[in-house]
Amino acid sequence: MRTTILILLWAFIDSFSGFANSYYDEDENKTDIIIEKGEGDDTNKHARIPIYDPITCYYMKGNIYVTTLTDLGEIQISITCLETGSFWKSVNDSNSGTICVPTSSANGNYMVRIVTANGDVYYGYYNL
Q1: How far apart are CA 100 and CA 58, in angstroms?
Q2: Distance of CA 35 to the CA centre of its chain
Q3: Residue 126 to residues 69, 78, 123: CA-CA distances in angstroms?
Q4: Are 40 and 53 within 8 A, CB to CB?
Q5: Measured distance CA(62)–CA(76) in Å, rounded
Q6: What pLDDT, in 10s, does the model give residues 5-38?
Q7: What confidence tier does 52 reach under pLDDT thresholds 50, 70, 90?
Q8: For position 38, which CATH number holds?
């Protein structure tokens, strides 16, 4: 009985590994963006243990892709070029899957800011 359970568990876990490999593109033009909770002003104290952030984000070929891992309601996504002040904004329902926000592909430093329906703020930086 225990062997059967272990085989079923292994098959279940293995089925997700194929999904994960097909979801995460190995394309060298993809830039993962680390998203943290806070305002983005570096005044927040960092926890000593990892915190679950329900948002993943990456840049690829002139677009920012945002995926929420839980239902956060309506989310506001803004991308700002820190050198020029150029600004891109999108408001979407977090249940709509991966959200694509067209943005610039010009070289520079950028900040991504995400505000959820309940007012939580998440941010991340990337450069091109």
Answers
A1: 10
A2: 6
A3: 21, 13, 10
A4: no
A5: 19
A6: 544 444 444 444 333 322 335 555 788 888 888 7
A7: low
A8: 2.60.40.3080
